[in-house]
């Protein structure tokens, strides 16, 4: 019997050995349904794949410079040669949707490091809002494939800024089934929550926050950045201290732009932006329509609420016939185009029902907004779309931080009038001239001392190159410039000028 | 763990009932686990660019010490319990994960209970046998390697579900004398598990069919 005991003892020892194991711990998961929760800490460190062998964890500045210049010759003359190594993280955080419902979203954190003094020690943080995209898979953590993210990394992370850039609720793996597009309150909440979550990760991922915070964004993101700075000034002042705001080509003056579109001056890309807006505002506030076919022609109305953002690219939306490329209004809809340049937006296969346009215009006539530039929103529109436009127009506060507004005066997508009207409003409301800088990159240097001469000259050269390429290809140069104006020509120059503005503010 | 305790105490009970000599045999020997793992590419709840496809894994072979106990039922049948010192398997990447080499390691304990049928007579020196049984495999100490953490994007928790499946074996026993014998076996078992790797907010999942073939040589002592 004793032998049996010994034998079984051995056996059970073997079977039971190494209980309570030493497996790897993994991230700390937090699913607390509270705004700003960082769902997993540390977030995912985005690997940098190599041609062969394992990926790297840091993007080397020399390698980055080579890839930037290969993609766009001369770009690093504008961005500056990258100084810092960059580690990019992909985070998930808890935020709210357009109707204040709890949801989640994802975003990027870029952390600079390296021996250059600009890369080590406490670093300033830029909270960045990206521009409109129709692709749900858009990801600011994907430096390899996302040109906006690459430009941001080159402008800021490679120069020693910690970058926090949310993808927004409704994008990537967010649980929200729509995107609260240009819902100023929600988008500010989203930005705030992404920064809260990022701050929770900073210690884990070696990001040393100097406490200096700047906010910027391009296009949609320009609006979002300003809405965020406004929220941090009015609602979250104890939690966030913003050093400066740089808005680039943003539709800050929402109500102005909406009224201009319906009056006969539609913007390029408007056939895509308008459904994004109606879906957002319908889901956020309700009441825009009972059925989308009250606004949209029947051939587009079915499924339009879930079309954007989605799997299709901008061009695929047009080629598959989901949306018309230009025809916003019917050919015979009155009033017609405000100038011949807007003729293309009136045509067959139009998006907006004339009955809806007529109702909109009737309300605009009865309850006009933007009458007094110093008090543009003292109006009471009855049309729900116009109401939402006023609600999300940012000309209702005065920033208490230095503001830089950049754009190009011939922008066909987001009219420069938005920037001018917003700057004019701020001035009228007492924002000191020293605290407000407006840059039109599509203009000539005012003098040899013009601090923005380089941006203006650079933009001019890019524009000329586009014209020359179009002429060489026997294409219409004006159309060629318009096609790339908002998305390609303006961004690098406004980015470079914004960064110079931030660096100047931060140096004080 | 509860299940294992139960298995062991059940065996213990059997052993205690043994009134006659030479009805029990304990064995110790060497096990070589040949894994022929099959698993589909990882699925992910994260963005596609963070799990570039095809991304999969292959489980490597392992060696360990075997321990076994068998209890004679009659001249042809016996109950046979096989276990071993839990071996550690290296897991290497496949597809886009191939350049990383060993991305994780996992230990397993796989107690298996067979009913064996032996051919010939109890007095034969050589007795071939076949067995059918049940395998229980528990995975533990699963860890992502340092290079694995680079592939996945950070500290990674790996979880593999327990597996229960049929097992079969065939072998031959050579009896030196009344007490001492040597046994050689080839066994196979259905070992299939769901794996989840958690990195940051991303869960990547696959199912691994190990398809193990286990070679064992063991020295036995009867009492």
Describe this structure in words.
The complex is a heterodimer of chains A (508) and B (223). Chain A has helices at residues 2-16, 61-71, 75-79, 147-155, 184-205, 220-234, 254-263, 270-285, 298-301, 314-319, 354-366, 384-391, 416-428, 453-472, 477-507; strands spanning 28-29, 40-41, 44-45, 85-96, 102-113, 123-129, 162-166, 209-218, 242-248, 403-407, 436-440. With 508 residues, chain A is an alpha/beta fold. Chain A has two domains: 29-253 and 395-507, Rossmann fold; 277-391, no CATH class. In chain A, the strands form two sheets. Chain A has a nine-stranded mixed beta sheet, with helices on both faces. In chain A, strands 1-2 form a two-stranded antiparallel ribbon. In chain A, strand 6 (123-129), helix 4 (147-155) and strand 7 (162-166) form a beta-alpha-beta unit. The radius of gyration of chain A is 25 Å and the shape is globular. With 223 residues, chain B is mostly beta strands. Chain B has one domain: Porin. In chain B, 10% of the residues lie in helices and 60% in strands. Chain B has helices at 2-17, 146-152; strands at 24-34, 43-44, 55-59, 62-72, 77-84, 88-95, 102-109, 112-118, 126-144, 156-160, 163-175, 180-189, 192-199, 202-209, 213-222. The radius of gyration of chain B is 20 Å and the shape is elongated. The model of chain B is unreliable at 1-20 (pLDDT under 50). The interface between A and B is large, with 51 and 53 residues.
**Number of helical runs of chain B?**
2
Shape of chain A: globular
- Number of DSSP strands of chain B? 15
Q: Just give the CATH class of chain B.
A: Mainly Beta
Largest sheet, strands/sense/barrel of chain B? 8 strands, antiparallel, barrel
Which class best fits the helix and strand makeup of chain B?
mainly beta
Fold-level CATH name of chain B: Porin
Strand order of the largest sheet of chain A: 3-4-5-7-6-8-9-10-11
The largest beta-sheet of chain B arranges its strands as: 1-4-5-8-9-11-12-15
CATH architecture of chain B: Beta Barrel
Regions with little confidence, pLDDT below 50 for 5+ residues of chain B: 1-20
- Output mean pLDDT of chain B: 90
Overall spatial form of chain B: elongated
N- to C-terminal separation of chain B?
29 Å
Structural class computed from helices and strand pairing of chain A: alpha/beta
